[in-house]
User: What shape does this take?
Amino acid sequence: MTGLYPATRLRRTRSTAWSRALFRETMVTPADLIWPLFITDGSGVEQPIASLPGVSRWSVDGIVARAREAVALGIPVVALFPYTQAERRSADGKEALNPDNLMCRAIAAVKQACGDELGVLTDVALDPYTDHGQDGLVDNSGYVVNDATVEVLVGQSLNQARAGADIIAPSDMMDGRIGAIRDALEGTGYANVQIMAYAAKYASAFYGPFRDAVGSSGLLKGDKKTYQMDPANTEEALREIEQDLGQGADSVMVKPGLPYLDIVRRVKDTFAVPVFAYQVSGEYAMIEAAAEAGVGERDALVLETLLAFKRAGCSGVLTYHAAHAARLLGG
Ligand code: PBG
Assistant: This one.
């Protein structure tokens, strides 16, 4: 309900900093942030990623240092992604099932260092491990097969849970994988391991730098449109979310982030569940490029975009700017 001018002047409450603070509806804190980190082999290694300026791959010791930094900054969760050596990639992605793979070693090291002070979220999909760069198993025609892929994803999830993962985050977009993973976790003593479903994940042009970071961009032929969603669709996103919730997802994710805030809002209004968004690599790179080109101010762009996610209904945001933002927010 709002009155007529001049009895009501909406600028009145905006006229001073104290008043703007008092009337502010939405807040971002470091506790809203999930920090994605890229792992590489070796020790003492930092490899900057050219297409993600300011982001590096770290060897496990460096990942542990970033994890401690996250705790110090008040960031509750890190998300881990491995860069797998070429000789460990194969058509069937079986390195995903190796209990001693880079991912598992990093999970264990972070849990050892930070315990319950930090959650570890792990991506479930085969693209860091396949020599064709697809998220699943492919048949002779190149089609990514669903049910056989789900079986491998279940094994990958259990492998990560055994290493200490707190949140399993399937990003593969196969049908039925959430239920299969939930059953397997329940059946093996991991009932409290959460699932954050990449439930509405679109076949997006914004993932390019990520594929450089995990080393799949040179391998991938074609696209992921037979499993990731058509950017034109909203109703289908709601069906994806409903299915994943029904199969046992504790929270759902919309991805990419900023161009899909309408989806976040509809999911939140429809299901009233915890919704997260992934401000993906191409979005990060665009902000960095804008700042570099002098057409925008980095810190302001970062904070404004994070606020937009919260305003749209997100419980939290996966962002490569997490540590920087947490520092700006005084964490
Ligand atoms: C892999 C995966 C992707 C991202 C997260 N997990 C890329 C893809 O689906 O090709 C993208 C994240 C980003 O761009 O920052 N399944």
